[in-house]
Amino acid sequence: MQVRQALTHQLMCQTIVLCRKGPIVISQCMECKMLNIWLRNLLLNFTSEQFKMFKNFTSQLDVEESMFPFPDGEERLVLRTPHSDICFTFSMTEWEDFHVAMEEAEYMQQVYQLMHH
Ligand SMILES: [Zn+2]
Hints:
Distance between the termini: 32 Å
Number of strands: 7
Structural class: alpha+beta
Strand order of the largest sheet: 1-2-3-4
Number of domains: 1
Bound molecules: zinc ion
């Protein structure tokens, strides 16, 4: 029940947009500090700590080894998740935008924290 309430709060959060990059929007709730990464039909929710860990993890990913050919002829980067049956895929452009967006979001998060203290 608590989890459900937390999730409902997140979905109802009054978020501010930290940054936009291509199709990626990263926002944060000023109340509970949860961060959202929104990319098309993908929505990831993180605490600040989890966000940092995710950002470090993805920046250390071996891009060459993570590229796979897809049936449409494109190569895409496949990002595994803790759920073995769910993977995220990114084109190279999306992957680069993703990193730029996370860098910007981290910076903006610090800016907003300074403003609110
Ligand atoms: Zn919130």
